Request: fold
Amino acid sequence: MKLNKLSLILAGVSAVLTSSAMAVTYNTSVEIDSRLGEQPLNATVIQNMEYPVLGVTDATKVGSYCLANGGANGTGFDNRTSNESNSLCPNLSPDYFRVQFSGVKGAYLDIGYSLQIQEKGGFRFSYSNGNQHVGQTSVQLSTTEGTAEYPVYSRVTLLDPTQVTDGVLDFNFDITAAYQ
Reply:
């Protein structure tokens, strides 16, 4: 009989444990305020890239260049004071390109850029270091104004004076931007 009492006690404990478990499903509501399209990403050119008339004389050496980077071209390609034989724009400051992005305050942007080397009419157009400039970067729009600026610097280098003629040469570069 002692065995039966123990069996009854264990069965009672088991019944108490199983009857104390339960599951309840709760609900919550979330209100959505869709402002899609209210603050689109915009791009405004602040400063176009502009070069002065580039001078090429019989004394201008191959490799002479003009930088559009915000500074005066005071030093020629040979690290001497710039003049008509070692610079295409001695002591001048061509305008580099600046674009301002605007949108949602504090948002992050992915900016893609591509400035490929282009050769035309005896000149090479390149990034300010003389190479191509291709890649992607991330910037944050300001938390107060919702804006950020992005600059592009460049260089025009004399490659072959025998191909140089009067006129205008057009070069291009690409910039893309998207919210992250």
Notes: DSSP finds one helix and ten strands in the chain. Residues 42-179 form a domain with the Immunoglobulin-like fold (CATH 2.60.40).
